[in-house]
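Protein 1 of 2
SEQ + STRUCT:
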Amino acid sequence: MEDAHLLEASINQFDYVVKNIASHSNVLDNSIYPQPSTYLTTHYICMKVAGFDIDYDILTTISGASGLFAYKPDDFTPKYAHLHINIDKRIEQATGFGFEWLAPKTADECFNMIKDSINNNKPVKSTMYENVLFAGYSDNENINKRKIYLLTDGADYYSEWGSWNAFFYWFKEWGHNKIDDKLKI
């Protein structure tokens, strides 16, 4: 792939976390499936890539997510209470690691933010159901030949190259809300 920039450390951390830390096994057939805990896994991956020596369990605890779970009769899903306690602020206060959330106005501006961050060896975390992590890009003068590397274990699980069309669709749906461009360390 021409002009491809990849943060292999992010991809390797994602693969490790999803397979070994934030996953569940099915009792019936003993299969492993990813846990949709993307908010913390993407945060954890960014911290590890930045060189922070932190354990996933400790991150979960200091974030406030470990003790929060709600139950609704006939609805076996987590009730994301931890999203209402400013999880980012709690992690930053405890570790010194945080994000600067930005709101790009166009998909092209967003793509350039991601490129700049990846060129500085920093993955980019943003919203999509829970979160998505951008860990690589391939630039091209022909906008339709651009690609971006996406990592998520939210509603879907994937670690793959996405097309410009997929990125543009993501931006329309999610990216205009907020994207972290600069890690505050």
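Protein 2 of 2
SEQ + STRUCT:
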Amino acid sequence: MIARRLAVVAPLAAVLTAGCFATRGDVRLLQQDIARMQATLAQQRAADERARLEEARRDSLRAEEVREIARVMAITDDSVRSLLRQFSRFRVSASEDLGALRSQLVQVQALQGASQQRMAELQRGLESRPVVSTLAADSAAQAAGPPPEGPAGLYRAGYSLLTRGVPVSARAAFSEVLSKFPDSEFAPQALLQIGETYAMDRDQAAADSVWALVVERYPKSPSAPTALYKRARALETAGQTRRALDLYERIIREYSGAPEATLARERRGQ
């Protein structure tokens, strides 16, 4: 900017050094040069002022941008701190909930283990129930003397043959109970054991038919849910899962109070 001003003033200085030798025309030219110089200086000052104002405006805009960035950063910082506090609280709460959940899971697993053990004991007891009942009857009969001629004596004889591995002779004794004493309390159990003799002979179709007959003839007898359960277990072992499930459902529906219903629920779940 100083260089431009020197460039304007230089012609004037040259004229002034000419001094007294200037003519009237020279003076007029000098006045025109001065006027042009003044106009140029005015334009230059105006341009400098505009440049100064533009620079001030840009500085103001930059300052505003800096303030806005600082404000956004402050808000972001507050949000981050709030999220960190929330996360810390959540982590503590989640840790407490996880500890409680693990404790409950341990309790559930313990109860489940006890339940499964109880189911296994119940199942073993059920499957051995006919054996236990007949052995008890046989022991009582031996203590009292020779077995009487009747359904109890015939049933004990059949069971003794069955336990000794003579299914054909045992089946004959159980069949005699049915033919001579069809209305006795031993009849349903005798028919159930006939099914066992066929199962021992590996004739599963005949065993299934006999157990189905137990339910048909003696639906109110305790032997009925036992026969259904034996059929279902045999079908399940043979891979006929759908038919086995149908029988489990029937036991649960028609004999809900029997021990076999509890076992049927367990087998259905498995």
